Amino acid sequence: MGVGVLVKVLNEVRMNVLSQVFVRGLGQVDACDDRVMESPGPLFRRHLLLESLAVLSADAPSQVAWLAQHDVVTDEIALDFDHAFGMAEALVDEGQLGCGVLPDLREIDAVLSKMSGTENADRWTRGALSVDEGWSHTRRLARRVLVAELGEWQQPLPEISVIR
């Protein structure tokens, strides 16, 4: 199965399987319940975006260690960003994110999209994190966004719960 197809399958499985999400500080909630989409407010959504950027900005050995710790594939880094990126414009509208970071966020999305597809499967290995220019470029952009939003790019990598 190609990486592009795998990413699509993983997205669908993730959305179906993760109907129960453990949200730190909020307890267990049904992610498919429309009321939940209203209850995690802009601060929570901003937190999700910043966490995804923390993983993207980390150096390659830290990314590899994070993937191993949580027993997830490299695609998870891009998937988490993709889900959080979908909220970026709303966060700007809500005053929770500076509009100046949108170009960098869009560029991260574009770079990751260009890396997709079966012909790019080698770019989605743990080894590629330290040698692939696409990963280096997204790392630099993510760091720039974190500096703009938080004053520094080095952030603790998030703990995640994987439901299998």
Radius of gyration: 15 Å
Are there runs of 5+ residues with pLDDT below 50, and where? Answer: 1-39
Strand content: under 5%
What fraction, in percent, of the residue positions are helical? 55-70%
Number of β-strand runs: 2
Mean pLDDT, to the nearest integer, reads 82
The main pleated sheet reads as: 2 strands, antiparallel
* Helix-and-strand structural type: mainly alpha
Individual helix count: 9
Q: How are helices and strands ordered from N to C?
A: HEEHHHHHHHH
Shape: globular
Distance between the termini: 20 Å
Can you walk me through this structure?
With 164 residues, this protein is mainly alpha-helical. The chain has helices at 3-17, 34-38, 42-57, 60-70, 75-85, 88-93, 102-114, 128-131, 133-150, and strands spanning 20-23, 27-30. It has a two-stranded antiparallel ribbon. It is globular, with a radius of gyration of 15 Å. It starts with a helix and ends in a 14-residue tail after the last helix. The relative contact order is 0.16.
